[in-house]
Design goal:
Radius of gyration: 16 Å
Number of helices: 10
Number of strands: 4
Length: 184
């Protein structure tokens, strides 16, 4: 499914994003967001731009730091809804166990080139148990994150001055993926 979706996404829009969603039971009870950056890398300044969201950062008006764990980050958005996440403005790096991103995001993310970004999401047990109430909220946060990152703040190299530039930035297949992840 990933191969098919990735090739379809690249062929149709040139860009896209993949969320690899898992569960974990670490004592910190945070949503862990993996971009293939280790705890040590997250503690080092300046941050390495070598992550699985490299393509999104290259096309964004915002800095890597802001997209990774600042005001524009997925962690910030999840935290605003009551889901403490790492990395985020409040928890800039993990202080315990942490999944930094496994095979799927390494294989399919834009870390080494390409236009498909990937983020591993490790959900704590509390969220998995309350899936009926938490799932739709998290899906909405993902939709807002993607809308902002890929549409509202997109800096298109192909159409830099065009009003239609946002069309190039939309991963059309995103809505199908969110639906499959949260509602099927």
């Amino acid at each position: 499914a990933v191969v098919s979706t990735q090739s379809t996404g690249s062929r149709v829009m040139g860009r896209g994003i993949l969320f690899d969603i898992h569960g974990q039971s670490h004592p910190e009870r945070l949503i862990e967001l993996g971009y293939r950056l280790t705890t040590e890398q997250l503690q080092t300044l300046p941050l390495s731009h070598d992550s699985t969201i490299r393509s999104a950062v290259m096309h964004s008006k915002h800095s890597f730091e802001s997209i990774l764990r600042g005001a524009q980050s997925l962690g910030a958005r999840l935290s605003r809804e009551g889901y403490t996440s790492v990395p985020s403005p409040a928890v800039r790096w993990p202080r315990g166990s942490y999944f930094h991103g496994g095979y799927t995001v390494q294989r399919w993310g834009s870390q080494r080139g390409g236009t498909i970004d990937a983020i591993q999401m490790e959900m704590p047990l509390k969220i998995r148990k309350n899936y009926a109430s938490d799932g739709p909220v998290i899906a909405s946060v993902l939709a807002d994150f993607i809308t902002d990152l890929y549409i509202l703040n997109c800096r298109s190299p192909l159409m830099p001055n065009s009003e239609n530039r946002r069309l190039e930035c939309i991963p059309k297949f995103f809505w199908q993926l969110v639906h499959r992840l949260f509602y099927v």
